[in-house]
Amino acid sequence: MKVTKNREGIQYVSIVEGYRDKDKVKHRTVKSLGKLTDLEAGNPNYLAELKESVKEGKFQPEPETLFLTLDLNQKISAPLQNYGWLLLDEVYKSLGIASVLSLHLKKTKSKIDLNEALRLLTVKRILDPQSKWKSVQTQGDLFGDFALSPQEIYRSLDTLSVLSEEIQLQMHHAIAKQIGRTGALVFYDVTNYYFETDLDDEPVE
């Protein structure tokens, strides 16, 4: 219970709720009850009784309500879209790859959005590995505004291949800055392949 006074000296009564915002304790109004003089006019013990009511939990914040109307006779035409890919997109953005691609486009007359193409291919490769053509055909599954054609994707590949080392270097710098990687010691994995067969090897002379 809280009693506040305005500039004219009029006292108002309200019910407030305390909550923590980071390291600070703040208050929000649960219910405004009006002028104290009006409330005590018919009951001089109003404040004492109000305190007891508050202790008993009779004043609780009203839950937030969302009203939604559905037409059950209308068919659902919009496909379900993947929103979770936006988490991967934040990681992609944090690597600063777009800066490398943007700098390259300034030097050329290409109108292909290399960053959009690489974003789509990267996310699709992680979430649902498939062909590049299929990645374009299913780009509508991702929430957002992807509108790339197969021609744009295929035409971007040569440029992305040329910029491969620059992109990797930019990623290294971004990761080193974010997590403190030094690169003083690097392990390079060279995997060996071999094949087994039930047939004996031919004798070597």
Question: How is this structure best described in words?
Answer:
Helix content is 42%, strand content 13%. The protein is an alpha+beta fold and 205 residues long. It has a 3-stranded antiparallel sheet. The longest helix has 16 residues. It is elongated. The mean pLDDT is 85. This is IS1634 family transposase.
Short recap of the structure:
The protein is α+β, with helices and mostly antiparallel strands. Helix content is 42%, strand content 13%. The chain has a 3-stranded antiparallel β-sheet.
Mean pLDDT: 85
Strand order of the largest sheet: 1-2-3
Distance from N terminus to C terminus (CA atoms, Å) equals 101 Å
Q: Tally of extended strands?
A: 3
Q: How many helices?
A: 8
β-strand amount: 5-15%
Largest sheet: 3 strands, antiparallel
Report the order of strands and helices. EEEHHHHHHHH
Tertiary shape: elongated
**Percent range for helical residues?**
40-55%
Radius of gyration: 32 Å
- Unreliable residue runs: none
Task: Decide which structural class fits the backbone.
Answer: alpha+beta
Protein name: IS1634 family transposase
Organism: Proteiniclasticum sediminis
